[in-house]
């Protein structure tokens, strides 16, 4: 297949003049299909080949794809089609950046994690992820014979993939290396969980495969631990690289310095707003947490009903039948008070602030039930370039829904909203300094803990390590909650101003309709779609 592709690409290069004269939107879709086919590496011993040699061999083909993209004249296209061109360019920039700078297959052991037990709440797994992951959450139990065979084959690849990883992982990013070891300790636990859930006899072939994978995983952990003693280099990509990545891959019109200022401002604003809320609510009783499974069930059921009623009655956004089922699948589980992490603390007091963030699941339900008409936008975009729109939207509506009246009957719940915003700002701020190599990952976590109100981040170190590790692996993700929130507010401002000039009325329902129909794309491009205007400055 790849050989055919290369031939096609070479032919297109030879006939470059013809390409320039025939660059319709249909041609762009063909290019997109070729690009996605190319982006996934060839296989070696049944697993994807992430060797240096593989990337070197593929570089000329990448250059030809890039030339095809740049040959398009899109100036006469409608805004929506132009946006699709920018999406492809952003993905190509992401590939280039990974090859030049990020190099997760060389620097980041967690890149070789194979087993995923859960569905992400955004269109693709957060952070750099290899192309051959085992999505156990997608399997229905008991397994059919075909699914059993498929799962066994996927498990059999784990030892092979880890052997390849040992060849490829030659980087010197000390903190990425050490933190990545925990991913494989968790993978071992996940493999044991899979074996127990399947419930086959111990001599069943799939159990033999799982045991082989567990043994390989143990050896891989030992190898990582031994190699970690030699790692001395930084893990952050530096301010200049960070800025280039954000501006050219995630299409966020900000510098590293801009993000520091914004997140510090949002941290200050959320803390001061929390103090004002507490003052205003000083004579009201504190909200009591649900401390039994029965209390939690009542609390969350009431939360779903309140949230759905709010969306409908307030006409916040177009109500769709898939919303409530999507939320009900993720209502949360009761956790004893002593085991609650940051998000579970709030969830057991009032689930609505977190349920507001769960508009994520509305997005995923739409991708499943009503995929975007554009073939370029109807599936997850690469390199997490959806982060500012998906995470920014989910964080932004927490405050927007509050201002729109979600907590008119529960003023104390407003305090939880400000605590959550402060936590996002604090953890993102720490991640910025880690990427600048001005803080260690542990020191970035210290910012995260210190500036989360009410010491809600002091209680569960696993969440803290997971988040800071993810943000060090994926530049811009830790800040996307706040930068995307800012961009969402900016779009509201500019769209409202546009309507005012046209003597038209702004409504949240119409705004969110347009915003969501743009798809899971970089939020800057969503702005272009809503305003029907290309704005290169932001």
Percent helix:
55-70%
Alpha-carbon distance between the two ends: 39 Å
Order of helices and strands: HHHEEHHHEEHHHHHHHHHHHHHHHHH
Q: List the total number of helices.
A: 23
Principal-axes geometry comes out as globular
- Rg, nearest Å: 24 Å
Number of strands: 4
Sheet with the most strands? 2 strands, antiparallel
- Largest sheet: spatial strand order: 1-2
Amount of beta strand:
under 5%
> What is the SS-derived class?
mainly alpha
The domain tally reads 3
Structure description:
The strands form two sheets. The chain has a two-stranded antiparallel sheet with strand order 1-2. It has a two-stranded parallel sheet with strand order 3-4. The chain folds into three domains: 2-107; 109-228, no CATH class; 240-531, no CATH class. The radius of gyration is 24 Å and the shape is globular. It contains 23 helices and four strands. It has helices at 2-14, 16-21, 25-39, 52-70, 79-102, 104-107, 145-168, 174-198, 205-228, 239-248, 256-280, 293-313, 323-328, 342-347, 352-357, 359-369, 387-403, 413-435, 441-450, 461-473, 477-501, 508-517, 523-531, and strands spanning 43-44, 47-48, 115-116, 134-135. It is an all-alpha fold and 538 residues long.
């Amino acid at each position: 297949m790849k050989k055919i592709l290369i031939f096609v690409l070479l032919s297109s290069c030879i006939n470059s003049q013809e390409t320039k004269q025939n660059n319709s939107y249909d041609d762009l879709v063909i290019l997109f299909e070729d690009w996605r086919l190319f982006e996934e590496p060839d296989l070696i011993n049944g697993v994807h080949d992430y060797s240096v040699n593989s990337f070197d061999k593929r570089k000329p083909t990448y250059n030809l794809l890039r030339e095809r993209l740049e040959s398009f004249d899109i100036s006469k296209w409608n805004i929506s089609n132009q946006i699709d061109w920018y999406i492809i360019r952003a993905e190509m920039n992401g590939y280039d950046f990974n090859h030049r700078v990020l190099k997760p297959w060389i620097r980041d052991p967690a890149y070789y994690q194979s087993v995923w037990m859960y569905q992400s709440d955004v269109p693709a797994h957060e952070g750099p992820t290899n192309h051959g992951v085992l999505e156990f959450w997608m399997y229905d139990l008991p397994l059919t014979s075909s699914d059993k065979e498929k799962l066994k084959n996927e498990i059999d690849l784990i030892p092979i993939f880890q052997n390849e990883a040992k060849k490829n992982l030659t980087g010197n990013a000390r903190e990425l290396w050490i933190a990545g070891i925990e991913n494989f300790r968790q993978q071992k636990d996940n493999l044991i969980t899979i074996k127990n859930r399947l419930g086959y006899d111990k001599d069943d072939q799939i159990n033999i495969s799982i045991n082989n994978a567990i043994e390989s995983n143990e050896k891989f952990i030992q190898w990582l631990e031994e190699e970690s003693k030699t790692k001395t280099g930084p893990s952050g990509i530096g301010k200049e690289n960070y800025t280039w990545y954000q501006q050219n891959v995630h299409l966020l019109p900000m510098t590293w310095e801009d993000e520091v200022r914004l997140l510090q401002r949002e941290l200050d604003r959320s803390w001061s707003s929390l103090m004002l809320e507490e003052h205003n609510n000083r004579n009201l009783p504190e909200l009591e947490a649900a401390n039994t499974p029965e209390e939690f069930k009542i609390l969350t059921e009431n939360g779903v009903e309140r949230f759905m009623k709010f969306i409908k009655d307030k006409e916040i956004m177009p109500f769709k039948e898939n919303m409530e089922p999507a939320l009900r699948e993720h209502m949360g589980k009761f956790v004893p008070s002593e085991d609650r992490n940051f998000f579970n603390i709030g969830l057991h007091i009032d689930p609505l602030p977190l349920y507001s963030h769960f508009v994520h699941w509305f997005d995923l339900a739409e991708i499943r039930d009503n995929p975007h008409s554009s073939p370029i936008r109807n599936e997850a975009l690469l390199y997490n370039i959806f982060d500012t729109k998906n995470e920014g939207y989910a964080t932004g509506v927490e405050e927007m829904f509050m201002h729109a009246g979600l907590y008119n009957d529960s003023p104390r719940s407003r305090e939880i909203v400000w605590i959550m915003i402060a936590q996002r700002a604090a953890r993102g701020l720490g991640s910025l300094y880690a990427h600048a190599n001005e803080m260690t990952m542990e020191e970035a976590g210290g910012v995260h803990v210190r500036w989360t109100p009410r010491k809600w981040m002091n209680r569960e170190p696993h969440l803290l390590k997971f988040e800071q590790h993810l943000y060090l692996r994926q530049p811009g993700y830790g800040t996307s909650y706040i930068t995307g929130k800012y961009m969402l507010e900016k779009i509201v401002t500019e769209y409202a101003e546009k309507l005012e000039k046209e003597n038209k009325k702004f409504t949240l329902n119409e705004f969110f309709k347009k915003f969501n129909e743009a798809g899971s794309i970089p939020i800057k491009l969503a702005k272009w779609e809503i305003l029907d205007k290309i704005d290169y400055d932001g």
